[in-house]
Amino acid sequence: MSTQTQETENRHGEGAVLWERRDDVVWLTLSRPEALNALTWTMYEQLEQHLAALHQDETVRAVVVRGDGGKAFAAGTDIGQFVTFTGEDGVAYEKRIDRVVQMLEELPMPTIAAIQGYAVGGGLILATACDLRFATPGSRFAAPMARTLGNCLSLDNLRRVGHAMGFMRAKELLFTARMMPAEEALSCGFLTAIVEDDALYDHVEEVAQRIAANAPLTVWSAKVAGKYLGRPDGEQAYEEVIRRVYGSADFAEGVRAYLEKRKPQWKGR
């Protein structure tokens, strides 16, 4: 995978998901600004390809997801693609989206959503799958299917949104189809912070680079811990994570570096 931004000939029609590497941080840009980055099948396919590559790349320490154009993170899935849908098509579509979102959610490195403008429908779900979410004051969040298409979310995506903002609030958003402003999203714990428009990407870059400079296995252990919480065997299963961290070359390097009063050189091993 090239470290340069990936350009495609269909960017202004079918859209694209652009890849840019900055040191140990990868930025993925949902790029279809003329349609508020509404996601096409092409964009979902490219996103899936990028995520598959990231799952195999042990040198990437953090991933940032953002929208192109400054007006939207993503305004859902392009509605024109649903014209001939049947019930079976709907099931297949939700399974496909679940697969892509799960790939994003389960990346081994931390993920950050940098949100300007609308994060609606599929855009809301992609943002929810990220570990951290920073947004500008004018950002808006919604799952407006009850007002627009009359479709629904999968159980997995309902779970994600419910865990991120509270199940009662998630149901209220789905029932009313209203837009939730950034301040409310911050107050309910959905957002990490609100950042002014002209400072958003610089702030996210600083956070991502700070993460990238830290011990990768320590960061990884904090990321995966959530899936063990609440499991009957969670504490016992998490011992494998602890064993991997304490048995790593990085931990030995950290101890040596501390005793030698120098900066550790993390390798993620």
UniProtKB/TrEMBL annotation:
CDD domains: crotonase-like. The keyword Lyase applies. Keywords: Lyase. It comes from the Bacteria. GO terms for molecular function: lyase activity. Belongs to the enoyl-CoA hydratase/isomerase family. This is Enoyl-CoA hydratase/carnithine racemase.
